[in-house]
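User: Hey, my collaborator sent me this sequence without any context and asked if I could get a structure. I don't really work with proteins. Can you help?
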Amino acid sequence: MRTLRLSRGAAPRSAEDVSLRPGTTTLRSGRASMPHRTVLRYGVRPFLVFADLLAWILAVQVTGGANGEHLVLLAVTMCLYGAAGLYRSRLSLSALDDSAGLAGRALAASAITTSLALLIDERLVDPALLGTAAIFACSAVLARALAYAAVRRTRALGWVAHPTLVLGAGRIGGHLAQLLLEHPSYGLRPVGFLDSDPLLEPDERPVPVLGDNDALASVIVEFGVRDVIVAFGSAPGSHMVDIIRTCDRLHAEIFFVPRLFELHNTSRDMDQVWGLPLVRLRRAAFRTFSWRLKRGLDVCVSAVALLLLSPLLGVIAAAVRAEGGPGILFRQQRVGLDGRAFDLLKFRSLKPVDEAESATLWNVAADDRLGPVGRFLRRSSLDELPQLWNILRGDMTLVGPRPERPHFVATFARTYPRYTARHRVPAGLTGWAQVHGLRGDTSIEERARFDNFYIENWSLWSDVKIMLRTLSSVLRRSGG
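Assistant: No problem. I've predicted the 3D structure and written it out in structure-token form, which is a compact way to encode the shape of the chain:
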């Protein structure tokens, strides 16, 4: 049985690609006997885009035909709808719930389009544009009502039935599985529970228990699970965090029943199944299109920086050579994405006695052997500049958790359970922990917490903020 390798965004293709941890329950074979159709393979988004296009065609036909301004109106409106999450997949679909957002953003789009026309040429302004936007908003609500009805119908007929796994075979989990069986219009078909110590008796379970909690990744692949719902079970919350994170690279959406759900107010990120609230867990950053843009940004910035900084790199290299003799670059093995080791490059600030010292000496900032050049390079963080080559090669990224040596990774992993979760993304030249001063002799537990917070809440804008704060630190020479 092969072992799951969490390589750059790749998901395992079969159950043989996932190995069970020691002590897990043997799974029942059932994937072949549980086919599911994929009419809505890409969720409800194609239906909604098509509905909005029909609404726009109706609006422009009523107001006298399409022109350039109407096309701009359509583009701006759809961008505003997308930014507001009006194209996202949901379990509960209601045109009335969407109506205020649809109408308000259509009218806002008409104002934006008119403003753009005035900036270009006031003769381009169409007085009927506001009327077109108003008709578009009304027809969009009607079109969505029809689209939602079609989606609910395909779900109820079983044409769309995502295999769903419930984590936690307790009272809430059992009730939730029963609701999904009774109401197929939500599009989720429960295939079983996972629980190391099920609270429900066998005759109380609407679907079988397929294994213990640690078998989550294997069961997702074996049964083609598309959605996972985390209910209240026997496992402590801290243990469930680690289990759920093992599935970041698998293409399954994750919901969870919030604590004190009877007091919960609904929000944009919340859904519900027959009155039972569910929170959709944010999709892992490296499964999004924005993450691909991040790699493009890495390549562009690192290539341009290496080119523009080449005179400075030459000066630093000469200074290092003059102070410490041959050996300008310092290569050191570090641990990066998915725990894989790579050779990190730095300007040499101190020549280690031997390989053992290089691998195990924690910090040299206060070492008496540091010369003026080495001390300046470390203080200004200019010794890190050769890592731009690591970034261009793909070993690292501009922003991410700072990589550590294998010796310390093994030590920290035994002491801090959340430490290895940092390796879900590539190591970075700078990171969220570093811009908060967590470098050198600072708390490893806090570093891991900051790094995992960055991964869970990643966005391109957060990377930009971190790079700006890093630049500020370099200019103030507050490195270590």
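In plain terms: The longest strand covers residues 188-194. You can pass these tokens on to your collaborator as they are.
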